[in-house]
Design goal:
This protein is α/β, with parallel strands linked by helices and 663 residues long. The protein has 20 helices and 32 strands. Helix content is 30%, strand content 22%. It is globular and about 70 Å long. The chain binds 5'-O-[(S)-ethoxy(hydroxy)phosphoryl]adenosine. The site of 5'-O-[(S)-ethoxy(hydroxy)phosphoryl]adenosine (WTA) has 24 residues, from α12, β26 and β27.
Length: 663
């Protein structure tokens, strides 16, 4: 290898409490990993601190907390253009329905694409896309803009207009990005459904959003197999009844699919019609107009469409990406997430493009055709920043240090992690073997709801493996007891955000009361995240995990209710419960408990059939690890399944307060 070893300085810090799953405060050897001095000094965030006359990012942070509106206002002009300026940065009069940048007008597509396509970045590479099979497609900002413009004209020809909600169900191809931008260009909202989900998830989301237009593909590639996107779409659209009028089909695999006359149209045929390359106007949106819906799992089975806004969303996405991942003009950035999840929305589809960055997107599985595929991609394109999930780090770590060592990763300068707590062992491996002791790891804590990073290191932060360190500029977070008191140092408590932030969700589609109840009612005036966390003696945050009915499997967010409803849709199942239990690679795995209907026998074959059934209904990621047949389920007197009792029993832990348990 060509690079130098270990320029990292490590200093011992004081010991704190003993072990837990995260390694939070793990005994004596706890260390800070200091970022390389040059990286810290030359970072975008440090440049801003100096501009403001501060000697450190800590001082800058204090100022942003005292002057949040001034700070976010400065960010809004630093990173974005606006058609009309705002009259207030924040309007709190209808809390918790906060409004940001009131009366300003904007469109993220102008900021992410058009100003680059018409400016100095015109011929700069925006996107390098590589398929699993090794095909490569590259787009400059000008080419990207032309694709988006054409897609927008096609959508317009199908009647899409401002305020419509278009459901998008595609694999990880550039057309997914074009489609999303095209929808937003027209002032419509996208609702992207992850291409790994299946009929049930797609159908319920189409229905809730009442999408008249759905964009899908004939299929997608994953692990050298075709994912039957069109077949799944057909079933979902049929189930959704009369709602869907047009299905636009992007050709990708080229295999035979059904095209329903009068409903389905090939994208490439529409795009070839006259006039599709004419300029299509970009709608000027109010900052508070909704920009997109993203469905996510919550405590009940009904889909929860989180609504994000046109203005504040882009401000925080751009600011966090610039100050955390330190994007510079010659960086080659690679976020391995799927564009169908919030990480992909914020940090593939929009963030990097607002900043005029060059990014890599890879369609397939990390280990196809061999476990070096990711490192080969990083070498080939000279990737400087990798942003991925702990589950990927853990699974690649299994193949040993030798695999990354075969590739030249010397261009890498920063690494990132998201989606679940990263265990210190995986963190250290990522830091030592991938980052060659040179690249700080940005362990970013945030949520679909928050839209952008909330707790994260920056390139000047001394790191501790497994901790997201401290809140981002302008963000105030805390760990509180159930009663709303500050939790004692190193005690678990509820992770809360103490004030609104620009990229926060604005409401839940069609159910504003649920927005208030879910996020703003547990502790009045505060946003409760649904995570438990603790703070150590240095004020560093350690996120422990979900405390509600969300299960994070390989970083993917799933709901117990969705798994349970998939199970009871099988004729053999009378009742079902799902819980998450720790899993070495996946972080958590789904374990289920099933009461059978009369006449069905508890056999291994049936357990296997049920696992497959959930996989088919919801998508492969939701396939349970285990199906346990049980005669009854622990329930409260009001009939609610006590999942925490199942969890405690499975882990051999005390079952806690059972006073509400039935009989
Ligand atoms: C978890 C993903 C620890 C957390 C962006 C949160 C994390 C949920 C981290 C949101 C992290 C995300 N460390 N836990 N760095 N990042 N989480 O909506 O439980 O898919 O509440 O958004 O993921 O998941 P979501």
């Amino acid at each position: 290898m060509t690079h130098k070893e270990s320029p990292v300085e490590e200093i011992s810090a004081t010991a704190s409490k003993t072990t837990d799953q995260n390694g939070a405060g793990k005994s004596a050897q706890q260390k800070f990993y200091l970022p390389p001095e040059e990286l810290a000094q030359n970072s975008n965030i440090m440049a801003y601190a100096r501009e403001k006359g501060f000697a450190s990012v800590d001082e800058l942070y204090q100022w942003t907390i005292q002057n949040p509106q001034q700070f976010w206002g400065e960010m809004a002009t630093r990173f974005l253009d606006w058609y009309q300026p705002w009259n207030h940065v924040l309007d709190e009069s209808q809390a918790p329905f906060y409004k940001w940048f009131t009366r300003a007008t904007t469109n993220i597509v102008h900021n992410a694409i058009e100003r680059h396509a018409n400016g100095a970045n015109r011929d700069k590479t925006a996107l390098i896309w590589e398929s699993e099979q090794g095909e490569v497609r590259r787009f400059t900002y000008a080419e990207f803009a032309a694709e988006v413009n054409r897609f927008a004209n096609v959508l317009k020809s199908q009647g899409v207009k401002r305020g419509d909600i278009v459901t998008v169900y595609l694999s990880r191809v550039p057309e997914l990005l074009f489609a999303m931008h095209a929808i937003v260009k027209l002032g419509a909202l996208h609702s992207v459904v992850y291409g790994g989900f299946s009929t049930d998830a797609l159908h319920s989301r189409i229905l809730d959003a009442k999408s008249r237009v759905v964009i899908t593909g004939d299929g997608g590639w994953m692990n050298n197999k075709i994912v039957e996107l069109k077949k799944i779409t057909d079933a979902a659209v049929d189930e959704a009844g009369e709602v869907v009028e047009h299905v636009i089909v992007v050709r990708r695999t080229g295999h035979d699919v059904m095209i329903k006359e009068g409903r389905d149209v090939w994208y490439h045929e529409l795009a070839a019609q006259p006039g599709m390359d004419e300029p299509c106007a970009t709608e000027q949106m109010d900052a508070e107009d909704p920009m997109f819906l993203l469905y996510t799992s919550g405590s009940t089975g009904t889909p929860k469409g989180l609504v994000h806004s046109c203005g504040g969303y882009q401000v925080q996405v751009a600011t966090t990406l610039s100050f955390t991942f330190d994007i510079k003009p010659d960086d080659v950035y690679w976020c391995t997430a799927d564009p169908g999840w919030i990480t992909g929305h914020s940090y593939i589809v929009y963030g990097p493009m607002i900043l005029g960055a060059t990014q890599v997107m890879y369609e397939g599985a990390p280990t196809y055709p061999n476990p070096g595929r990711w490192w080969e991609i990083a070498q080939k394109y000279g990737v400087t920043i990798i942003y991925t999930a702990p589950t990927a780090v853990r699974s690649l770590m299994r193949f040993g240090d030798d695999v990354p060592a075969q590739y030249d990763l010397s261009k890498l300068r920063l690494l990132g992690s998201v989606g679940e707590p990263i265990n210190p062992e995986a963190w250290r491996w990522y830091h030592r073997v991938v980052g060659q002791n040179r690249c700080p790891i940005m362990d970013t804590w945030w949520q679909t709801e928050t839209g952008a990073f909330m707790i994260t290191p920056n390139p000047t932060t001394p790191l501790k493996p497994g901790s997201g360190t401290k809140p981002f500029l302008g963000i105030e977070a805390d760990v509180l007891t159930e009663e709303g008191q500050p939790a004692r140092q190193s005690d678990d408590g509820l992770l809360v955000i103490k004030r609104p932030w620009p990229s926060m969700l604005r409401t839940i589609h069609g159910d504003p009361q649920r927005y208030v109840d879910t996020y703003w009612s547990r502790l009045p005036g505060l946003y409760t995240a649904g995570d438990s966390a603790r703070r150590d003696e240095d004020g560093y945050f350690w996120v422990i995990g979900r405390i509600d009915d969300v299960i994070k499997v390989s970083g993917y967010r799933l709901g117990t209710a969705e798994v349970e409803s998939a199970l009871v849709s099988h004729p053999a199942v009378a009742e079902a419960a799902a819980i998450g239990l720790p899993h070495e690679l996946k972080g958590n795995a789904i374990h289920t408990f099933v009461i059978l209907r009369q006449g069905y026998e508890a056999t291994d074959a049936l357990a296997e059939e049920l696992r497959k059934h959930v996989g088919k209904e919801m998508g492969p990621i939701a396939r349970p690890e285990a199906v346990n047949f049980v005669p009854n389920l622990p329930k409260t007197r009001s009939g609610k399944i006590m999942r925490r009792v199942l969890k405690a029993r499975s882990l051999g832990l005390p079952e806690g307060d059972l006073s509400t348990l039935e009989g």
